Amino acid sequence: MIFQTPAEFARAFTALPRLDAQARAAAEARNGQLTKPPGALGRLEDLALWYAAWRGEARPELRAPQILVFAGNHGVTARGVSAFPAAVTAQMVANFEAGGAAINQLARCFGASMSVHALRLDEPTRDFTSDAAMTPAELAEALSTGWNAVDPHADLVVTGEMGIGNTTPAAAIAAALYGGDAASWIGRGTGVDDAGLLRKAEVVGEGLQRHAAALSDPLEVLRCLGGRELAAMAGAIARARSLSIPVILDGFICTASASVLERLVPGALDHAVAGHVSQEPGHARLLKALNKEPLLQLGLRLGEGTGAALAIGVLQGAIACHSGMASFAEAGISGA
Ligand SMILES: Cc1cc2ncn([C@H]3O[C@H](COP(=O)(O)O)[C@@H](O)[C@H]3O)c2cc1C
Ligand SMILES: O=C(O)c1cccnc1
């Protein structure tokens, strides 16, 4: 599907499939019989039930996790908002393709397929303090790239990103969607110093002011303040929902992209869990706003999908226990 306009995307992202309540009930009944004290596997139990409900199976398996890494460049880097030069985005894409990045190692660890999608790296989005980051056609193209990248046969999707400067648009999107001043949503990203932090707050504040009239529409928030890789992540997460494929969200940037969908259609992220909470201070705040409890807290501040990839391991464990354990009756074990 190629969306010509953001409105076409919005039309495709309506009448979303719901979780399978029957499968969930059957999975819950099964969970109650397994050879452990009730609730002893803690959040792993909730995780297995969530996965079963979205896969429509009482005893699901996780066979084909798909990691999608989207890359984009940002005009706002001219404002000195990152500790690294914009050229690093393309250099890291080459590193992903050569298998040398953190996400490559984690994808291999957890048996996930991984693909990298560079979005017009030689055409950075416009600096959002002076102009909308993208035209409607550019936004539609990036949403389409993400939408089409999802393998309909995948049974789990993780979206990651690479884009020097992109903690700044992520903060701007979060502020536009959930309110609060710019300073409360920014963080050090790749490691900017105190002066860099002040610049980021200023830049986000200017962007919010510049586009104030447009910010009641979530797709306009994404178009005016976002970036191509953020839009592609939103497109992929939306497509996964339309296919009832569960999603693990990564860090601040991924979660900011996903928030656009939740604002567009309340409940749009019911098929998604938060893989981790990153060091970027806005991330914990955004997860609270979305009412999502992160699975891991490891002090990561990398992106690329790394935190979500690690959480694939947790989900694998949850599903292995749920679907593989014996019941009390099968094992001949006495109940409480
Ligand atoms: C070598 C390198 C690899 C990365 N992988 C992810 N990021 C992360 O850092 C960037 C966001 O931080 P900021 O807004 O401060 O630029 C994004 O590219 C993100 O994916 C990286 C950054 C660098 C330098
Ligand atoms: O939370 C994230 O995803 C993140 C934080 C810092 C840099 N890159 C990504």
Automatic annotation (TrEMBL):
Pfam families named in the record: DBI_PRT
CDD domains with a match to the protein in the record: DMB-PRT_CobT
Active-site residues per Swiss-Prot or TrEMBL entry: E304 (proton acceptor)
Recorded catalytic activity of this chain's protein: 5,6-dimethylbenzimidazole + nicotinate beta-D-ribonucleotide = alpha-ribazole 5'-phosphate + nicotinate + H(+)
Domain of life from the UniProt record: Bacteria
Keyword tags: Cobalamin biosynthesis, Glycosyltransferase, Transferase
Family: Belongs to the CobT family.
Protein name, UniProt field: Nicotinate-nucleotide--dimethylbenzimidazole phosphoribosyltransferase
